């Protein structure tokens, strides 16, 4: 059975002694992914490029079965794809670096103090304060997002504000 005239897509159908594409894929995908991951240090990216290499191999499967080592072809394609991906990322990073403003003002002392004070809050309280005061979300929306009652969010906000006030007034007293 052929699909598109040249693809062996049914396992076990093909010239005698040939491995089906599914068997070839199962035998080589994992080891090739490990190799590309070691090269790129990005598991998701490695899986993507190996998958793309196997897609390209599937489109040429009849021709690849004539090769002494079809896995070498797939490996070369995967490595080329990984290298191309790296080059595109490098080009994008250089472009973004050129787009940045040359001078960025440093954060004000108040902003630094607020960031430090927020870091000391319990995670629930910190999330509630940030979502309410920085993201401008109403209490009901925060409650829905966090899957808690409105009163729980109000409690978190109250405790978070009290802790921030204590932290920030202590800092003010230390500076005076």
**Rg, Cα atoms, Å:** 28 Å
Strand content: under 5%
Low-pLDDT parts are 1-17
List the strand order in the largest sheet: 1-2
**Counting H and I runs of at least 4 residues, what is the number of helices?**
8
Proportion of residues in helical segments: over 70%
Overall, the morphology is elongated
Largest beta sheet, briefly?
A: 2 strands, antiparallel
Count of strand segments: 2
Indicate the mean pLDDT.
Answer: 84
Distance between the termini: 85 Å
What structural category arises from helix and sheet content? Answer: mainly alpha
Element string (H = helix, E = strand): EEHHHHHHHH
Provide structural commentary:
The structure is a single chain. This protein has 176 residues and is an all-alpha fold. The chain contains eight helices and two strands, in the order ββαααααααα. The protein has a two-stranded antiparallel ribbon. Helix 1 packs antiparallel against helix 2, helix 2 crosses helix 4 and helix 5 crosses helix 8. The termini are far apart.
């Amino acid at each position: 059975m052929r699909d598109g005239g040249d693809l062996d897509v049914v396992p076990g159908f093909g010239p005698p002694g040939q491995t089906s594409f599914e068997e070839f894929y199962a035998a080589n995908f994992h080891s090739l992914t490990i190799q590309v991951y070691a090269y790129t240090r990005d598991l998701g990216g490695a899986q993507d490029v190996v998958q793309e290499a196997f897609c390209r191999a599937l489109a040429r499967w009849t021709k690849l079965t004539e090769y002494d080592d079809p896995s070498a072809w797939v490996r070369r394609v995967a490595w080329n794809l990984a290298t191309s991906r790296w080059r595109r990322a490098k080009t994008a990073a250089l472009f973004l670096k050129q787009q940045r403003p040359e001078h960025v003002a440093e954060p004000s002392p108040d902003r630094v103090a607020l960031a430090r004070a927020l870091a000391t809050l319990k995670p629930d309280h910190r999330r509630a304060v940030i979502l309410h005061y920085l993201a401008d979300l109403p209490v009901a929306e925060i409650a829905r997002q966090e899957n808690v009652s409105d009163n729980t969010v109000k409690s978190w906000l109250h405790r978070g504000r009290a802790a921030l006030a204590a932290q920030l007034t202590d800092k003010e007293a230390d500076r005076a």
